[in-house]
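Q: Protein A?
A:
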Amino acid sequence: MVKIPKIVWNPVYSVHVEALDEQHRKLFDIVNRMIDLFESDAGSYLPVIEELVEYLTVHFHLEHIIMMKIGYPRLAEHNREHQKFTEKIAAFLKGHEAEDPELGFNMVLFLKEWVRDHTTMLDVQYGDYLLRHADSRAQLSDLVGAPMKPL
């Protein structure tokens, strides 16, 4: 059995919106549960995939609202990455239906890499943009109902 290192949240990945940082930490936890499930060969991936898809629907929506609110110039590009992710998950679900023997490993590896890379690179970019446009911070605090992290 292949051992897959887990992903670990680090505060340097912060996007400076606590509600989103909390969601990112939860995404890391869900992916790590997928890794545990794969390594233990203890059951179906489907319930965890369903949880991930449901959670990402909420998360992507909140990110989209925040990026619109701050006038993030790379919003369309960022949303395309979300769409590509959604399409890849749909392909994995088709593989699940077809009982693809390589599905578990490929899916876990993709999820780990995508969540880690997307969160620590692309999401950090809009967090940096947010810091440079501090006038949007008060508006965002009202919008998400959560305090902004201090500068």
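Q: Protein B?
A:
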Amino acid sequence: MAEKQPSVFIVDDDEFILDVYSVKFREKGYKVEIAMSGLEALDKIKQGFSPDIMLLDIVMPKMDGFELLKRIRDEKLLSGSLIVILTNLGQKEDVQKGLDLKVDDYVVKAYFTPSEIAKKVEDLLSKKKDNLASGSKDSSAQQS
């Protein structure tokens, strides 16, 4: 039986970032869905889209990434999806806020190339798959 094509949901208001990451993940065999705002992302999620992993920017118009994350957690959406914050906000308070909202990773865009981000995503999905195979209930990264 063929393995399911992994899906990545990229939420960012920067078209260049969306294009770069869409190309990178498609090259690696991912199904890619994009949204340019938190509201658009929430709408797609509520319509039933449930990716394997979501890459979420923080600074966006209408609804920022933190608000979207809070809504996802409060409404118990995407319970089977990994969520990685991918932003240029690297202040300690921002990182802590993301971790408090139970993200699987917090990545500052400026510190990594798209190829390095793709590798991080592959590693997170591989770890999740291994945890599911071994029966682990908590597949999220341990951060403190």
